[in-house]
Amino acid sequence: MPPPGTPAEELLIARFRGHARRLFWSALVLIATFGATAYFYGNLPAGFEDWMLLTAAGVLILLAVVLPFVIWYSRTTTITTRRVIAHQGIGARQRREMSHARGYTIAVRRGPLQRLWGCGTITLSNGVDAPLRLPNIPAVTLVHETLADQIEVGQILAHRDAQSGGDDTDAF
């Protein structure tokens, strides 16, 4: 703990992406596309050529595999000792933050499949700003406990600094 009145250093606690289970269908399409391309290459019916097969396979892989992966990879959540930061976007990045010291409520929602995979959706709401929704968080119970601990520590430090600020003015 830093001494009263000095700002606490912001440290990284966790950085993660949504659960990768969303990429299951992309992986299945990738495997099926490679298998079908290998099977049909050189064995196409009359009127079709191999370059048509390779072009169709490339477009399918681009749309069903690469694009979902890039979208998944572009969304990150960072938890520090001061705040929660949610980044999203490929070209133009969108960033939302929520401070621990200000306090917020934590709502966890887990569907049946999310329970099976150990993930869930966390919604953070401070009552002033729009709620911050973090979908498909892996190890959702651990993240929930970490956020609750950080809120408590942040509020304790803010209260302690507010109390020590009053004592310093009385001493002078």
Report on the architecture of this protein:
It is a single chain. The chain has 172 residues and is an alpha+beta fold. Helix content is 46%, strand content 24%. It has four helices and seven strands; from the N terminus they run βααββββαββα. The protein has helices at residues 24-40, 50-73, 112-117, 140-171; strands at 12-16, 76-80, 83-88, 94-99, 105-109, 119-125, 132-138. The strands form two sheets. The protein has a four-stranded antiparallel sheet, with no helix packed on it. α1 (24-40) runs antiparallel to α2 (50-73). The radius of gyration is 24 Å and the shape is elongated. The two termini are 25 Å apart.
Structural class: alpha+beta
Oligomer: single chain
Ranges where pLDDT stays below 50 over 5 or more residues in a row are: 168-172
Classify the helix fraction into a percent range. 40-55%
Order of helices and strands: EHHEEEEHEEH
Cα distance spanning the termini: 25 Å
Largest sheet: 4 strands, antiparallel
| Total of DSSP H or I helical runs spanning 4+ residues | 4
